[in-house]
Fold:
Amino acid sequence: MRHQDLGELAGPVLLFGGPYSNLQATEAVLAQAEVLGVPSGNVICTGDVVAYCAQPAETVAVVRAAQAVVVAGNCEKQLAANALDCGCGFEAGTTCDLLSAGWYAHANAEIDAEARRWMAGLPDVVRFQQGGARVAVIHGGVTDVARFVFAVSPEAVFVEELAALEALVGPVDVVIAGHSGIAFQRQVGGVTWINAGAVGMPEHDGRQETRFVVLQGGAAEIRALTYDAEAAQAAMQAVGLTQGYDRALLSGYWPSEDVLPQALRLPSLAKG
Ligand SMILES: [Fe+2]
Structure:
């Protein structure tokens, strides 16, 4: 496990997850850093820069140009290792498995060796302090980079992950995670667990806006991100990524609920 310690960060910190090769959303969230007066160096991504959408290489380029701090997601780890799938561990034949075969092949074809070397060097855990709060940023989990942790996950899941994290980096007050694609905040003992959501894909709630987080004084605000989703969808359709995530950008509903706990799945009527 590779750590990066940013030390004390003054001012607000912008945290975002899942750019997912969605160039338009990534540019929009990076622009928010300026709008919100977030100092350069205080912009942190929870990983999966590359995934479902059309422009993996361009998205990597703008994240790097912005000098955002990036935690390695499973997608970065798999691409760095020249693997043949996204590493989510979807069961063979599930919808997520079939969908990932489409977008991962596109990303794998677009990402060059230099970008893979950058991915290979990304940290697994980023630490910083804000005021008195000790903050750690991870991707999915510490026990498994691709662990899906949701607001409704059992308390034992959080306890297990916090124990693994604190064994690595010492006591923490705030955890910022990503991977599962839905922003939330949950108190676990004395620790605040925040998922910063994903900017590159809506939250399966029928809204086009995506989410990111601004952390100030150790307290998180989950904010909505509006961006040119039509352009992002058109870019996907232009490269043949028409398996369902293209429509999700506008409908706000995922094409598959495979990864979701029952409590977060929607009645079929709601999906129209
Ligand atoms: Fe992930």
